[in-house]
Amino acid sequence: MPNNPPGGLGHVPVAVYSCATTSTALGESEERGRYYADARHWHVAGVWSDPAPSLPLMERLGWKAVTAALSAGMIRGVVVSCLTHVAADAAQFAALGVLLRDRGGFLADGSSGTPTRRTPGQARRPLPWGETPGQGHACGAPGRIRTCDTRFRSFL
Prior knowledge:
The protein has 3 helices and 4 strands. By secondary structure, it is α/β, with parallel strands linked by helices. Strands 2-1-3-4 form a 4-stranded parallel beta sheet, sandwiched between helices. β3 (about 75-80), α3 and β4 form a beta-alpha-beta unit. The chain is globular, with a radius of gyration of 14 Å. It starts with 12 loop residues before the first strand and ends in a 47-residue tail after the last strand.
């Protein structure tokens, strides 16, 4: 399997993970995660979600499926559209990134926008949900997301 670093371009299999209470929010989150992966030419090998952000991360069925896919070598990384889908704050997100790195994977926050590096001739794509880069969202993370569920608990 390719061993491209997070943020790098290449055909890397990734999972898109989201956690929100409504199907609309889950759909929007999946779309953003796919867009982020596609902008880096990453292959979305699977999409998992959980409808209960109040559960600790390690108790969520969708997250368990993501970690199983990582352990099985099906994916190399996990893309979330907002760090609060998996952590309460940036420190927890970083700690989770270390845990995934220890298992041979990586964690990417899709709210950071389009990649800074592009292949020659690769044009900047319009955003599918009609927002512009740099707009913030409810969880306070930088990016283009309109809404983000912030009712998450510790992932440990």
